[in-house]
Amino acid sequence: MCNELHRVCNSLHTSSVALEHALLVALSERPAAGLELARRFDRSIGFFWSATHQQIYKVLRRMESDGLVTAEAIEQTGRPEKREYTVTDLGRQELGAWIATTTPRAGFRSEIAVKMRAASYGDRAALLANIRELIDDHRTRLAHYDGMAARDYPDTSTLSGQELDTYLVLRGGILQETFWIAWLTEYLEAHGVSRLPSLAPQPAAEHPLAPQPAAEHPLAPQPAAEHPLAPRPATETS
Fold this sequence. Notes:
It is a single chain. The chain is mainly alpha-helical. The chain is built from 8 helices and 3 strands. The protein has 2 domains: about 1-100, Winged helix-like DNA-binding domain superfamily/Winged helix DNA-binding domain (Arc Repressor Mutant, subunit A, Orthogonal Bundle), CATH 1.10.10; about 110-210. It is about 55% helix and about 10% strand. Residues about 10-15 and about 200-230 have low confidence and may be disordered.
C-alpha cells in the first residue's frame, strides 16, 4: 500500500494535482455518480476551482485507474445504470498527505488591474464601462453567496468540524466579492463615475460591507428641497 501511495503521489504531483484533490474532497463529503458530482462541483468547490464536466469525467477515470476511487454500478428504473464513485483507502491517504503539504502563497494575476493602471494610454471610457459590468457580476455572486449563508448556516455558533470549514470557505468567497466591489467602485468614483446604474442592481442593505451609492454618502450633496433653508412649495404654507 505504501509503495502504491508513493507511486500515485509522484504521478499526481507531476500532473494536474489540484483537480484530483478537489474531487477527492467532494467525494469524501458524499459519494456520487459522474453527472451528480459535476453538478455538485459547479455549486460548491467549482466557485474557487473551476473545471469543465469533460475534465471531471476524464480525471475520474484516471483516479479510478490509479485506485483513488472505486465505481459501483447502480441500476435505475427506466434509465441506464449509473456508476457511483467512492473514495478508497488509498484515496483517503493521498488526500491526507496532500492536506499536510505546505501551500505556497497564491500569486495574484488580474487583467483588469493591469488595464486600470494602463487606462491613460487607451480608451478609458470603454474600461470604465467594463468595470461597471464587472461590479455587477461581483454583486450577483455576492448575493448568491449571502443567500447560501443565510439558507445553510442560520446559526453559525453551533458549527464545528467539516461544517465549520465549509462555512468559513464560503465566508472567504463573501469577503473576496466584497473586496472586488469596493475596489472597483473606488476606481469608478475616483474618475468621477459615481452613480452608474447596475445591470442587475442589488440593494446595498443586503450586505453590510457593500459599497453605498454616492448619494447615500453622509457628505454627498442633498437635494435642495431637503435643505432646512430651502424655500417650501406654496402648497405647504399656511
